[in-house]
Design goal:
The chain is mostly helical. Helices cover 63% and strands 3% of the residues. The longest helix is centred in the last third of the chain and has 29 residues.
């Protein structure tokens, strides 16, 4: 009975994540959602900045703290390992939903692209960023990343395989394509308001802080394999090519904190 309950819990957490992820696309892009980033009750600049910064800080703290190995060891004393990832996904989704709900718009245009074809191209680039995020999760292990692999194996009585390190497609050019996709999605805006700019700037800063913690964890897990990978492949921008083939026998199944960390 526990295995079936754990499986149902994992499925429910994943469905909630999918809903929040789709809403996030509309929220940032201002597309087909009831409350996009520039809509809602307008308050003073100081109040909006304070509330929005607090919401993003709450997400950053929850997201980063729960992704750390030390917290996972502590959490394992109270939460079964089979649903530990699903619990992380569930709480991340709830905090992100809270951010969407309570977000305060900050009006005022920072830039706008008046040329319709160019505006459409920038709008399309934003969706390309979201596609990069989603594709990158499947390149590693989408279902492990969001807890389904764990609860399925628990249901069938199989053990989780050990983490492997490999570099499929995007990972041959940048170490963190999921984060790169988020940055593109957040900044590629035909109309950039002050509220959108605050969101893009703070989340981008958090991404780079998160990378520092994540790469420390990945180095501890994969050792010299990941150190060599860092030397060969750039972090975010694909400005240099790998000088040698990376060992295909080993890989970051946890390769983003939106990977074992992100969204």
């Amino acid at each position: 009975m526990y295995r079936y309950c754990a499986f149902a819990y994992g499925i429910a957490s994943y469905i909630l994540f999918l809903g929040v992820f789709v809403y996030a696309i509309g929220f940032v892009s201002g597309f087909l959602v009831p409350k996009p980033i520039d809509a809602g009750t307008v308050v003073t600049f100081a109040e909006a900045t304070l509330v929005d910064s607090a919401l993003m800080s709450l997400f950053a703290i929850q997201h980063s703290v729960m992704a750390r190995q030390s917290f996972k060891r502590w959490c394992g004393l109270y939460v079964p390992r089979s649903v530990e990832r699903s619990t992380y996904v569930l709480l991340s989704s709830l905090v992100l939903a809270l951010l969407f709900w309570q977000w305060r718009p900050i009006p005022g245009v920072v830039w706008t692209i008046a040329n319709p074809p160019l505006a459409a191209a920038v709008f399309g680039m934003s969706f390309l960023g979201w596609l990069t995020v989603l594709t990158s999760t499947f390149l590693i292990n989408h279902f492990e990343l969001f807890g389904l692999h764990q609860v399925t194996n628990n249901l069938t009585g199989r053990a989780m395989p050990p983490p492997r390190f490999y570099t499929p497609l995007f990972y041959k050019f940048v170490r963190h394509p999921i984060y790169l996709g988020f940055i593109i999605a957040f900044w590629a805006a035909p109309i950039m308001t002050w509220g959108h700019l605050l969101f893009a700037a703070v989340t981008t800063a958090y991404i780079f802080v998160g990378i520092l913690f994540e790469e420390r964890d990945l180095t501890a897990i994969f050792g010299d394999d990941y150190i060599r990978y860092k030397r060969r492949v750039s972090m975010i921008l694909p400005w240099r090519r790998s000088k040698a083939k990376i060992d295909q026998s080993v890989v970051p199944t946890q390769s983003e904190a939106f990977a074992r960390e992100v969204l």
